[in-house]
Amino acid sequence: MAASAAVVIPSPRPSGSPVGGAVDVLPALFVPEASQWLSTTLGRVAGDGYSWMQAVHWVAGSGLYEPRRHRSHGPRSFGPTTVRVAQELAELFPCRPGIEYLVRRTGLSERSVEYHLGMLRETGLLAYVVRGTRIRGEKAQASEFARMIPVEFDAALGTRTVLRDTAAPEYTRAMTGIAEAGRELMAKLAKKASRKVRKPRSKMSSKASVKGARKGAEQASVTAVSGEVRCTPMQVGTSACPSAGATSSPPEEKLASGEAKFPTPKEPASRPGGRRKLNAVGRRFQLARELVQEVDWLRGCSVARIAWVARNVADAGWTSTDVRAWLHLRGEVARVRRGSGLLAVLLAGAETTLDTPAKRADAIEQWRGAQEAARRHRIQQVRARTERYDGDWTAPASHAVRHEVEEAFAQVKNAANGGHRQDHTDVVDDQDAGLAPSEQELAELRATARDELMLGETTLITSMDPATALRIFGERLVRRANQLRSGSLSSLMTYGHR
Fold it and tell me: Sign of the CA dihedral 82, 87, 92, 95?
């Protein structure tokens, strides 16, 4: 910024002159880049965003700043767009705006936002506290600004400032009063600062609004009733007719007898839960959506098709749990080619077989009991085959030595049970539980796990500890099971056969 003695300040405007009116001398209001920092500025820090916006409107209306004097590109003047950017900055505390934030708030381009921020710095309205950084490979840091009031503003309006703490910097000066000649101008700037500068409407929207207004005026002139006072909710001023339209008061004799009843406006019927009750079609689609999400071999099917297939049970009041219990009674399927066709076959006559809620409740109990039994059986089977990995002992590779070890284990177990020999089936199960599964059994176990993963079932792998599962099934099957287990919690992932 030039030295303060060389800056020519406009004389106070006479009463009634506009904010942007002519001044005696139009000096160049410009702050060089070296003076755009808080430590080198000549202005003072604004106490709040409102007083800062007064200085912004003064700069916009004074005409003391011409951007094209210092560059050949960018905006030509300090106008409404710059004021809109300043309005966004006035609401920030601390004033640390990012370029992306201002682009999103103002609708301007990134280059335009940079231009207007530079104009606010060149007029002395902003000063750097911390300058942002843009380092490749790292996240860009936004600059932090201090909202400043230029010294030209204080001189033009005759404001008096004082430095309350002599040890504090000069930019901490506080305003203590204003000259009589600048009060009227300050009042005008206060009105401008209290209003928001909006984004200008496009020409097409303004033309459409004018056409709509003309069309509405023509329609209003056609529907007006001759000989009566015009009554419309859009008419400005007082109305000579009641706003209720056809509402009329009862006669005096009914009022005296107490028989008259004033009409009351109808209140909307309150719905339980605040949600609209579904009709028949809505219940069909709701049931279909739940079935597609819960039944493995229906995932990926069209919801509309499933809604048409399950229309009869949906109309009968069935839920997705009732349908799954009925599918269990009909029998489990291993391979499905077309899910909607199989569902149509399995649901044939279901609403007539389980025609009461009690029958459907019994079917649900049977289905849940079977699920729990299958889960326990699968866990016991896996634990029995992998029990040998819990200890440090490994089975011998020789079949003859293994046979001798089996006989020794059988004798020890027989002695522990009091000399009573167990049943042959139990002995075989115990031997299998204590010995390592053969390679053929491991291959069958892996094949079973692979088939279950194709159907979206991960219990066989995930029920074991990670180290044991990795040793038996391998890294590929364990990773696939973990992916399916995490993906089954999301509605965006579907798997199975259609």
Answer: positive
Please confirm whether the linkage preceding 250 is cis (ω < 30° from 0): no
Please confirm whether the linkage preceding 67 is cis (ω < 30° from 0).
Answer: no
The reported pTM is 0.40
From the list 39, 194, 57, the residue with the least C-alpha distance to 120 is: 57
The whole-angstrom separation of Cα 315 and Cα 51 is 68
Binning the chain into helix, strand and coil, the percentages to the nearest 5 are 55, 5, 40
- Average of per-residue pLDDT values in the chain: 75
Q: What is the pLDDT of residue 288?
A: 93
Q: Which two three-digit tokens encode residue 18?
A: 């506009």
Contact 408, 489 (CB under 8 A): no
Token readout for 228 is: 């009566």
E strands, 137-226, in order: 144-149, 159-162, 174-178
Instruction: Parse the chain into domains and list their residue ranges.
Output: 4-194, 280-375, 385-487
Mean pLDDT, range 223-235, rounded to an integer: 38
Is residue 295 within 8 A of residue 324, CB to CB? The reply is: yes
Report the percent of the chain where pLDDT is more than 70: 68
Q: Which tens digit of pLDDT belongs to each residue from 160-174?
A: 999 888 888 888 899
Distance of CA 16 to the CA centre of its chain: 51
Q: How confident is the model at residue 397 (pLDDT cuts 50, 70, 90)?
A: low
| Spatial CA neighbour of 364 closest among 324, 333, 330, 331 | 324
